[in-house]
């Protein structure tokens, strides 16, 4: 299998963002881009929303690593929707050899009970599954060149990734402690990067800045800021006059009635005001010193062709 993509050298890419910023689309596009040229990537989701299936136009996906896309050069993307209940049973089985007893536990609702009294346990199981896939080898080589995690949103990302603090309260020793320590060291290593997806709007940008600060405080490496849905500037010079609007209408063979000119002038002014806000937000993000990548607004919505457009922007060349 090929080497890592030079621009995205990490092996575990965690994608977060405020709800509505398109983080699932960005995660999927990144998994496609990283699979180009004969690589194999795993796209993981942990929120039970079946967002990956919807994006690729598939029915609900099982808790299994299943190929959902191929790329140029023989690459492939597999998807894994992690089910916390299944992950807990798998885990109990692995460490405590419960077998049929584990399935009986599910019937009595023990899983819900365990994850309700210890929400941190649920996160350790989810991140533990991601770590296992990231580090898994077969025949002396990694099974996946890269793993992309469509993670919980920015408001929950710090708590989700800071598994050791949560499990320290649960377990002082034993397999859960070992698992959580292993996850914690992977998440704080150069193998991992958390990429934050945002729109150029005040709330998502504020959440992005907060998340970057929180992750830095936890010692978890932040990768890129992804500006999604970026629109090209319409007015190149950033200024206009009503006379210019009149001339433009005339040149296009359209009637230049004063009411039309005034409406267009108001719209152009609103566009410029919005652009000024976007510029100040862009500047605020740039001041964090993280690499930024801009993705275009896809007029036809996100389908496979759209994902390929985003993948090419994320991984040019």
UniProtKB/TrEMBL annotation:
**Alphabetic keyword roster:** ATP-binding, Nucleotide-binding
Q: Which InterPro entries match?
A: ArsA/GET3_ATPase-like (IPR025723), ATPase_ArsA/GET3 (IPR016300), P-loop_NTPase (IPR027417)
Q: Which SUPFAM superfamilies match?
A: P-loop containing nucleoside triphosphate hydrolases
GO molecular function terms listed in the Swiss-Prot or TrEMBL record = ATP binding; ATP hydrolysis activity
Q: Which domain of life is it from?
A: Bacteria
Q: Which residues form the ArsA/GET3 Anion-transporting ATPase-like domain?
A: 13-177
Q: What is this protein called?
A: Arsenite efflux ATP-binding protein ArsA
Q: From what organism does this protein derive?
A: Actinoplanes regularis
